[in-house]
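Bumping my old thread because nobody answered last time. Still need a sequence for this structure:
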């Protein structure tokens, strides 16, 4: 569609409905002369938008073959003019929309209708190369730069990626093959990466076959990731689900993840680069997570944690056929800290380990890491855990001369598998207490007796991210 045509759509086809109490701001596409059918669609969001348009208005073709990168980028660029006038939303209707990477804008919603599929282009030249993250200083797959993510944004405010459970398909097989054959010149792209931004919502979508990590908010704050389904083959490399990285005030809830790596991986930079950048991940809520990952963890803290991780609250976690429940990964040279971690209510089925902490996780960014940069691991709390068919209850390995301290476990029942390890607990260089834990833990975790089973208290005060309320937004969808 020519520019004059889509401007007419925006000017005459979009009206701003006034603010209306609990319903919030509503935007509708209104075209009284149209003979097409339409229906009103309502969804929840941190912000509603005054202006709406369809990717079709910018020449997009959802046939699975036509490349729509320019259409998406032009749509975002043109809609950005409404940032100070109630914001805008781009509707992706049902169809298969092949596209390379495109950048998002502020006060903007990308809405994927039911049966809409964004297909990531497999043409490498559709993926720009950008610098490594400053808190990493090095690519993860290769030294130097990294391919930009499919959906990317930096220095933004008020960004929403949502829909009627529409799909983003990364078509990652090509990238996995290049990774395994060591033919990557740069680090693989992620599906969604938002940097240096504030007020972000990613919700009600299905993400498939990411080339690497799926959702990566970094150096950002006030983030909600909700109602996401993430699916990748369990042997696909580094297909982490959700990776909060040097982020503050974030809520991850009601997500279902099957992946080849950690379902949620909390990070804050790598070795000397993360130490220098010095931006921790803090005030993080993870609740109602269901995870399947036979070779990784439901929740991992690290291994890139050199900027620090603090005040993580996880509850109502279900893991099935997953290597470990909660895993803390660090090493000499990481520096930083992981402290004030609270886990309550885990239900685990078929696990290699329930608890795993290691101070021997290598994989340094380069040869310049500081052997005197020791991580601080303390105040790690678990309570109300039930696990069955477990090979080993725990593998807890601190660092010689740098013990992991303040470990607390209460009301934990672990049923061992028929072919479980002879010794269910392995503990070195740790300190902590337990109450009501079965099988009985190692001596380094001092048993306080069953009467103390209410210890390892979960914080009762709320975090700011829980005070962010969703509005009811609606618009009329013509089809």
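Sorry it took so long. Here it is:
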């Amino acid at each position: 569609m020519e520019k004059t045509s889509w401007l007419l759509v925006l000017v005459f086809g979009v009206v701003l409905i006034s603010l209306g109490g609990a319903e919030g701001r509503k935007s509708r596409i209104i075209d009284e002369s149209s003979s097409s059918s339409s229906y009103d669609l309502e969804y929840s969001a941190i912000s509603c938008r005054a202006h709406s348009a369809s990717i079709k208005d910018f020449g997009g073709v959802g046939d699975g073959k036509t490349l729509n990168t320019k259409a998406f980028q032009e749509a975002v660029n043109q809609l950005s003019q409404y940032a100070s006038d109630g914001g805008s939303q781009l509707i992706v209707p049902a169809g298969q929309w092949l596209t390379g990477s495109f950048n998002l804008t502020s006060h903007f919603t990308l809405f994927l209708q039911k049966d809409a599929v964004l297909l990531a282009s497999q043409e490498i030249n559709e993926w720009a190369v950008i610098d490594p993250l400053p808190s990493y200083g090095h690519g993860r797959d290769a030294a130097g730069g990294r391919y930009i993510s499919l959906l990317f944004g930096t220095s933004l405010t008020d960004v929403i990626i949502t829909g009627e459970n529409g799909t983003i398909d990364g078509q990652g097989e090509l990238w996995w093959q290049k990774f395994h054959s060591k033919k990557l010149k740069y680090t693989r792209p992620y599906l969604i990466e938002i940097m240096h931004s504030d007020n972000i919502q990613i919700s009600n979508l299905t993400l498939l076959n990411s080339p690497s990590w799926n959702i990566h908010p970094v150096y950002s704050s006030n983030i909600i990731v909700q109602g996401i389904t993430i699916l990748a083959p369990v042997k696909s490399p580094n297909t982490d689900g959700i990776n909060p990285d040097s982020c503050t005030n974030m809520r991850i809830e009601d997500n279902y993840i099957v992946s080849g790596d950690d379902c949620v991986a909390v990070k804050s930079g790598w070795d000397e680069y993360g130490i220098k950048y010095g931006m921790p991940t803090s005030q993080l809520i993870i609740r109602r997570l269901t995870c399947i990952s036979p070779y990784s963890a439901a929740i991992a803290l690290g291994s890139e944690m050199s900027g620090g991780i603090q005040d993580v609250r996880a509850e109502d976690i279900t893991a099935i056929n997953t290597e470990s429940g909660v895993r803390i990964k660090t090493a000499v040279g990481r520096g930083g800290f992981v402290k004030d971690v609270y886990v309550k209510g885990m239900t685990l089925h078929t696990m290699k380990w329930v608890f795993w902490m290691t101070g021997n996780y290598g994989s340094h960014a380069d040869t310049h890491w500081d052997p005197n940069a020791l991580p601080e691991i303390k105040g790690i709390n678990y309570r109300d855990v039930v696990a069955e068919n477990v090979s080993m209850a725990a593998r807890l390995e601190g660092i010689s001369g740098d013990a992991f301290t303040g470990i607390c476990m209460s009301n934990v029942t672990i049923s061992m598998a028929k072919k479980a390890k002879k010794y269910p607990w392995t503990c070195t260089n740790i300190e902590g207490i337990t109450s009501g834990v079965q099988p009985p833990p190692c001596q380094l975790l001092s048993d306080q007796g069953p009467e103390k089973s209410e210890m390892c208290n979960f914080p009762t005060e709320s975090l700011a991210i829980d005070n962010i309320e969703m509005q009811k937004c609606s618009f009329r969808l013509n089809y």
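The longest helix spans residues 3-13. Let me know if any region looks off to you.
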